[in-house]
Amino acid sequence: MKKSYQDIEYKRDNGEIWFNDLKRKRENGPALNTNRYSEYNDSTKSVHAGQYDDPETGALGTPIFQCSTFYLNEKSYEAIEEGRGRDEMIYSRYGNPSQWSVQEKLSSLENAESSIVFSSGMSAISSTLLAILDKGSHLVSSRDIYGGTYNFLYEDLDKFGMSVTFASPTNIKEIEAAIQENTKVLYFEALTNPLLKITPIKELVALGKKHNLRVIIDNTFLTPFNVKMLDLGVDIVVNSATKYLNGHSDLIGGTVSGSRKLVDRIWPQMLKNGGSMDPHACFLLERSLKTFALRMRTHNTNAMALATYLESHPKIKRVYYPGLASHNQYDLAKEQLKGKNSGMISFEIEGGDTNAHALLNYLKLPKEATSLGGVESLISLPYNTSQASLTKEQQKAIGINDGLVRLSTGVEDIEDLISDFEQAIHKTFKK
Question: Is the pTM of this model over 0.85?
Answer without folding.
Answer: yes
